[in-house]
Amino acid sequence: MASTQSDVHNVQQQLSSEDQTYAAAHLNETDETRENAVAEIRRWVDENGDLIPRIDEFLILRFLRVCKFNLEKTKTRMQNYYNQRSHLSEWYMNKDPHQPELRELLDLG
After folding, report:
1. Where would I find the CRAL/TRIO N-terminal domain in this sequence (predicted)?
2. Using only C-alpha atoms, what is the Rg of the chain?
3. Does the global pTM surpass 0.85?
């Protein structure tokens, strides 16, 4: 899936103006940093064949925002996430919240 400027713009448009202001002030997110960071993460994923992530802009921006647009932290977080999904796939598959075992864990908080 190729990245386009309009894809990044569409994801950004999902934020309210209040959220856009917050993102700029607290997450270092501007139009320029968003576009550059998404492009850099896409390049990094392409160069690292061991990662096989879903790589749409929405998901990339979620990681970037959690890491306040720090590219190295974002890369580390993404790599850890996909390594964990790969090595512990049973944690992520076929989870029914009504199963007694899961219900017990969910009830614990």
Report:
1. 56-81
2. 17
3. no
Amino acid in the structure at residue 10: N
**Helices 31-47 and 71-87, interaxial angle, to 10°?**
40
Q: How many CA atoms lie within 13 A of 27 on its CB side?
A: 22
Tens of pLDDT along 18-72?
A: 998 999 999 999 999 999 999 999 999 888 877 766 688 999 999 999 999 999 9
Cα atoms in the 13 Å half-sphere on the side-chain side of 49: 0
**How far, in Å, are 48, 59, 74, 82, 96 from residue 78 at the CA level?**
12, 10, 6, 6, 25
> What is d(CA 72, CA 69) in angstroms, rounded to the nearest whole number?
9
Instruction: Return the number of other C-beta atoms located less than 10 Å from residue 100's C-beta.
Output: 7
Collapse the DSSP code of 49 into the 3-class scheme (helix H, G, I; strand E, B; otherwise coil) and give the result.
coil
